[in-house]
Automatic annotation (TrEMBL):
<feature type="domain" description="Orn/DAP/Arg decarboxylase 2 N-terminal">
    <location>
        <begin position="24"/>
        <end position="258"/>
    </location>
</feature>
<feature type="active site" description="Proton donor">
    <location>
        <position position="324"/>
    </location>
</feature>
<dbReference type="InterPro" id="IPR022644">
    <property type="entry name" value="De-COase2_N"/>
</dbReference>
<dbReference type="GO" id="GO:0005737">
    <property type="term" value="C:cytoplasm"/>
</dbReference>
<keyword id="KW-0456">Lyase</keyword>
<dbReference type="InterPro" id="IPR002433">
    <property type="entry name" value="Orn_de-COase"/>
</dbReference>
<feature type="modified residue" description="N6-(pyridoxal phosphate)lysine">
    <location>
        <position position="47"/>
    </location>
</feature>
<dbReference type="Pfam" id="PF02784">
    <property type="entry name" value="Orn_Arg_deC_N"/>
</dbReference>
<protein>
    <recommendedName>
        <fullName>ornithine decarboxylase</fullName>
        <ecNumber>4.1.1.17</ecNumber>
    </recommendedName>
</protein>
<dbReference type="InterPro" id="IPR000183">
    <property type="entry name" value="Orn/DAP/Arg_de-COase"/>
</dbReference>
<dbReference type="InterPro" id="IPR022653">
    <property type="entry name" value="De-COase2_pyr-phos_BS"/>
</dbReference>
<keyword id="KW-0663">Pyridoxal phosphate</keyword>
<dbReference type="InterPro" id="IPR009006">
    <property type="entry name" value="Ala_racemase/Decarboxylase_C"/>
</dbReference>
<dbReference type="GO" id="GO:0033387">
    <property type="term" value="P:putrescine biosynthetic process from arginine, via ornithine"/>
</dbReference>
<dbReference type="GO" id="GO:0004586">
    <property type="term" value="F:ornithine decarboxylase activity"/>
</dbReference>
<dbReference type="InterPro" id="IPR029066">
    <property type="entry name" value="PLP-binding_barrel"/>
</dbReference>
<comment type="pathway">
    <text>Amine and polyamine biosynthesis; putrescine biosynthesis via L-ornithine pathway; putrescine from L-ornithine: step 1/1.</text>
</comment>
Amino acid sequence: MTQRIRDFLRTRRDDGPCLVVDLDVIRQNYETFARALPDTNVYYAVKANPAPEVLNLLARAGSSFDCASVGEIEMVLATGATANRISYGNTIKKERDIERAYQLGVRLFAVDCEAEVEKIARVAPGAKVFCRILCDGAGADWPLSRKFGCEPAMAPKVLELAHRSGLRAYGVSFHVGSQQSNVDAWDGALASAAAIFREMAARGIHLSMVNMGGGFPTDYLKKMPGVASYGEAIFQALSRHFGNRLPETIIEPGRGMVGNAGMIEAEVVLISKKSDEDTLRWVYLDIGKFHGLAETMDEAIRYPIRTPKDGDDTAPCVLAGPTCDSVDVLYEKVPYELPVSLSIGDKVLIEACGAYTTTYSSVGFNGFAPLAAYVI
């Protein structure tokens, strides 16, 4: 927790759980990515945290932006960033949304099938397209391995159709999985990308760009490698597979850009047991899966939690949210260690919550307000 967040929480009026994001941390993270891969363009993944203050900071710093919708594109343009700094990176787009993005000046679009190419060709003539390919995502907490992308062998057909349809077949993209712990995870995907570049060149079509996606982690309960380690491994893989003819490259950090910049303050609502003989406590917070902590689904993301009783004896407990929904349980398969002395009314601090919390928070479920957020 930064001193700025600590000072803010000390003086805020208690009106329920809240997220506090420190812009100084995000500024430092952007500079770290820029140093780690100096010849690569940073396209911040807006979906991770689209707060206007975050987007304004990154726009001023020189970042470009990966957008998943027209709404996100309009948010980025509101910062004063120009449309040539935007990638419409969602492979699943309504034709009218492609047309609207094109009208707004966006010229870079993701595809992963021929039908998407055909939509873009109809309403965004001359646009640049890159084809997303599948990779296994081994080593990631969220593999992202099925919904987006095509098999690498299919990509040349998709890109050749783009070329023949009057679009610019621009490159290849992939995503190695969110919260990727393996610094070498990009190697296999870059090998596939290089093979596609060679195949397209043999067809007389020369690609220019590789979008290496996100996957850069933040520290939760486990310490992860630093950005510099990822940068070094990625550069070595690029050199190994592309030799001296390196393509243009893009990265799309989201979690790695904002995750460690935010912290949620929550309150213990209830502590109970399910029977007199039960040794396992249930600790209920005033925040759960529906109000910002959706990434605890399948216990994929295990957030660090601080309490005012840290240092006392601990025991495992089930951690759950406040709603009348039985899936609103955060950690049960692997119970969470919390102090035995923890009491109803105690405040807890949930760390590394700057990414994918406010954007996952429901609007009015069970009558609870969406997660409040403050950017300082």
